[in-house]
Amino acid sequence: RNVKKYFPIKGGILKRTVGHLKAVDDVSFQIHKGETLGVVGESGSGKSTLGRVMLRLLDPTEGDIIFDGTDISNLSRGKMNPFRRDMQIVFQDPFASLNSKMSVGELIEEPLLVQTSLSKQERKDKAKEMIEKVGLRQSDLEKYPHEFSGGQRQRISIARALVLEPKFVICDEPVSALDVSIQAQVLNLMKDLQDELGLTYLFIAHDLSVVKHISDRVAVMYLGRLAEIAPKNKLYDNPLHPYTKGLLSSIPVIDIEGDINNKREKIRLGDDLPSPANPPSGCTFRTRCPLAHEKCMTERPELIEKEEGHFVACHLYT
Ligand code: SF4
Ligand code: MG
């Protein structure tokens, strides 16, 4: 609720704070148990920062993070510990996130060693069970990360994240570094594991086609704020925000299920994302919006519920 994450910008020889990078700027939403909420935005839109703040890997500057009825936004490290097991993250780069000196078995057992009091044998049994759940073999537990392909390494990262039986998993662009031919396999695995283990996902991507397959609802972020959030079908069939329309129409979208969708109204996204350190006044999207008008220069549009469950932040709807 009203979550902000501002990073100080230091300048001058005295390294004083000269401004703030508003990576996440007043974001509110809910995730329902068992659902997947897709979060889409360009690099620099704040989506990874939002994910890290939700898990308290970063402290919020302001706002409340409520997990399963408990406000965790101000909990100390010690008080956070029982929640750590329930919330995990799968990172984008399976090459960087797996320690190359540890065997796959050690990698999967490590969270159990740190977070539980299971015996060595119990940990080994869990690792065996988990490696098969992600579609690899028990014999792979003896091997090292470099012996695997990118897709297989991401399976290992997923096993590591899920071995603690979390309730909530943030997937931060987990397939972006993988070959397109492998992406669907890993997405399908994640979907199957979600159903089997009753997981709730926040699924971050820079591309609306990736989250279409896996999400129940989708949120679109722009410069640290939510532009639009809606049930999946409403967002893809009837996007309201000019930015969402642009994301859907700037290229003919061939989505992961194979539909070719190029019949949308064309809105081209001109220019690059402005700097989050110096966002435009009023509507932060106005510098790229073909429908910008006077009000957009000065007034910031609030997120309003336009239709049931379909929220948008744009003056065209107020
Ligand atoms: Fe475009 Fe104005 Fe809507 Fe912003 S508020 S998206 S500038 S029309
Ligand atoms: Mg990111």
TrEMBL record:
A Pfam family this chain is assigned to: oligo_HPY
Tagged with keyword ATP-binding: yes
Keywords: ATP-binding, Nucleotide-binding, Transport
UniProt superkingdom: Bacteria
Domain ABC transporter: 1-248
UniProt GO BP: peptide transport; transmembrane transport
GO MF term set: ATP binding; ATP hydrolysis activity
NCBIfam families: oligo_HPY, PRK11308.1
Family recorded in the similarity comment: Belongs to the ABC transporter superfamily.
Protein name, as recorded: Peptide/nickel transport system ATP-binding protein/oligopeptide transport system ATP-binding protein
